[in-house]
Amino acid sequence: MSHHKPHGRHGNRVDWNDPHLQSLLSRTEHWKLDNRSSHAPQDVQVHIGWGASTGRPGVLVYERDQVMVLETTFPIQQGEHVRVDRIAADGLRVVWGMVVESREGQRAEDRLHGVHVHWLHVR
After folding, report:
1. In the predicted model, what is the mean pLDDT of residues 28-48?
2. d(CA 75, CA 54)
């Protein structure tokens, strides 16, 4: 016997004008999702552009699949190619990526330290 409820055309109806729902939504409209705290931060060197010979310090704050999130104290333009060097158990690990989004940090500590947050698509 299946207890699965079939999906009908009507589904669940939501009254978007309900005052209780409007109150809840108004309290969340300025929320910013930020998953940086789910990964142990790791110091890295960030090389901007294909021919960069010297790196600048950054912090790897998130990594999964083909995505890296970096914090730096300097801006990096969207679309920029970057090389990220970091120390791993077996030596230096080098990863190339492209900046798909970049912005100034929005947390209080980000603003205090001039942090910029960059999302990279890793190649």
Report:
1. 75
2. 16
